[in-house]
Amino acid sequence: MLLNKLYTLGEEFFEPIEFQPGVNFIFGKKEVETDTKKSLNGIGKSALLELIDFALLSSFKKNEGKRIYDAKKAGILNGVSVVLEFTVDKEVYKIIRPFDKPSRAKFSQIDSSPVEYSIEDLKSVLCDLIFKRPDYPGFYSSQWLRKLLPFYIKIQFAKDYKFTNPIKYLKGSTLPELIQYHFYLLNIDNEISHLNYEVQQELKKLGPALDEVSAILNETYNLKEIPAAENRISNLEIEIEELNRSIDAYGVPRKLELKKS
Q: What one-character-per-residue DSSP string does 166-207 give?
């Protein structure tokens, strides 16, 4: 995948940016030379990366600290859409995502009429287009778009979340989950690592269920744990044996039994 062009529709907030083959650098420059501040913070370098990420269907939430989200809330981006043109296998595509309705986006080849998709449906289409390899021997999912793209797009939203570890590149993900993505990106069979992740997920689901069963036992029988229940059963069996011996001593033919269920 190669980026070709980034621009806005509805209102032109910046001149269309055309990416060149190879490495592209973004430089910050002050408009007013008399500005005594040395910092180049807040002039739009990171916001540009956010626009690319937004066009590639990133989430659009306040709690993720996005600068463009704040701009939308301030009314600056009303009626504006971001357009990203890119190339995959020599075919040029275009994606248009509006700020007013970020849950929908339009996508097509550059010379075709754009087709509107829900974001979730378009994620699968883009994931297959950008990442799918038919000859890959391991596990792949078309739901991985926003799991794989963050490895390539890194934006520092806050001082407490810095990109310091290339292995743990995805915030909130466990290592078993990440390993399957790394193996896929390296074209290494990830079948075992994916299976391990699924097992870990199942175990995580079983944990609350076991806790619920323990809580029911504790509430019903006033038992803190299973060993306590087993100990109580053993004591009851001993008491029953003693009662049976007492009954036998009086010649009564009935026997007491402890029914287990």
A: SSS-STT--HHHHHHHHHHHTT---HHHHHHHHHHHHHHHHH
Specify the DSSP class assigned to residue 225: S
**Which strands, in side-by-side order, build the sheet including 91-98?**
17-18, 2-9, 81-88, 91-98, 104-109, 115-118
Domain 2-157 matching CATH 3.40.1350: the answer reads no
Residue 3 vs residues 82, 112, 130: alpha-carbon distances, Å: 14, 18, 12
* Domain layout of the chain by residue ranges: 2-157
176-224 pLDDT, tens digit per residue, is 999 999 999 999 999 999 999 998 888 887 777 767 777 776 777 666 6
Q: Which residue has the higher pLDDT, 189 or 27?
A: 189
Stretch (H or E) spanning 84: strand 81-88
- H or E segment and range at residue 209: helix 191-221
What dihedral angle (degrees, nearest 10) is formed by the CA atoms of 112, 116, 121, 126?
Answer: 30
pTM over 0.85: no
Q: How far apart are CA 255 and CA 245, in angstroms?
A: 9
Residue 56 neighbours by CB under 8 Å, 6+ apart: 84, 95, 126, 145, 149, 153
The whole-angstrom separation of Cα 47 and Cα 177 is: 29
What is the helix, strand, coil percentage profile of the chain, to 5? 40, 15, 45
Which candidate, 87, 247, 165, 132, places its Cα nearest to that of 257?
247
Helix (H) / strand (E) element for 219: namely helix 191-221
